[in-house]
């Protein structure tokens, strides 16, 4: 399988008064073409910062790249000029943001917002761009698409705005779509419709996808592989079925245990005790050690590396899983 996106040692830091903090601290993962990679982890672990770093959209925030590579079809996006990056962004690499209202321009009609990138990237004239925009709105299930072209974002419901975002993101046939919590703000039935739609479009066009979510149900439904993030690092990577059947990292085990199971009588949900560490006061060793039920002395002093463990395509950043792997036993 060919690698569409390779993220290697990606670091993003934020300037803060008391000293810079590293929100993304050396991230490694890849996405093959046509594959959906899930990126999961608790709030604040660096998922959105990762996507903004890949898209090079940190300008206007106190964040900046502090190292690493983001190779898209072998070309390092972090080394492109702003002009070259603009040609890639929105065309080959598109993004759906966590909150559609922040990325739709409130004073521009929907039609104009969709047509602009189509004209820019596909070189269509006004009439052809309009026709393509209407087609895209119809494709994402927007009724009366040609009328909606004349609406302003505030005239649409949250679900409709999210569909518009998807139509915009898909309009230039991207090879990779980054979707940051694309359905979190929507109610459950709309959420299911939007996910179905994304799945269908992805299959029809064999597009790669980075799906960011903290909903493990969505992960199970949509993803081929999963990367689990904690405190700006990858702590586990696995094919989706293996991740749920046999999570290796104690953090992943905690995440999975904290999901309610429909058919089981759950008396009490187990949440992971403690909180994600403050970026300016990171523990010295494993960043999860202060919350981990299996903590050992070395966990407090030395951070483990992300290493292959327990089967094909699986990695874990944990002393315990790595030790037990060496002994040939099963993990925690
Ligand atoms: N504009 C910013 N200025 C300063 N710090 C920021 C900024 N954006 C993000 N951060 C910090 O970077 C860290 C990661 O934030 P990020 O938004 O990537 O989390 P997330 O995993 O997407 O969380 P959520 O699930 O809530 O969306 C947080 O500690 C956050 O405080
Ligand atoms: Mg986020």
Tell me about this structure.
There is one protein chain. The chain has 332 residues and is an alpha/beta fold. The protein folds into 2 domains: 3-223, P-loop containing nucleotide triphosphate hydrolases (Rossmann fold); 229-261 and 269-327, no CATH class. It is built from 13 helices and 12 strands. The protein has an 8-stranded mixed sheet, sandwiched between helices. A hairpin with a 2-residue loop joins strand 4 and strand 5. It binds adenosine-5'-triphosphate and magnesium ion. Residues 47-48, 98, 180 line the site of magnesium ion.
Give the SSE map.
Blueprint: E1 3-14, E2 21-32, E3 36-40, H1 47-55, E4 63-72, E5 75-76, H2 82-88, E6 93-96, H3 100-103, H4 110-122, H5 126-139, H6 145-148, H7 158-170, E7 176-180, H8 188-205, E8 208-212, H9 216-222, E9 225-230, E10 233-239, H10 240-245, H11 250-257, H12 297-301, E11 307-308, E12 315-316, H13 319-326
Parallel strand pairs: 3-8, 3-9, 6-7, 7-8
Antiparallel strand pairs: 1-2, 1-4, 4-5, 9-10, 10-12, 11-12
Helix pairs in contact: 4-5, 5-7, 7-8
Bound molecules: adenosine-5'-triphosphate (ATP) and magnesium ion.
Adenosine-5'-triphosphate binds at residues 14, 23, 41, 43-49, 61-63, 98, 214, 279.
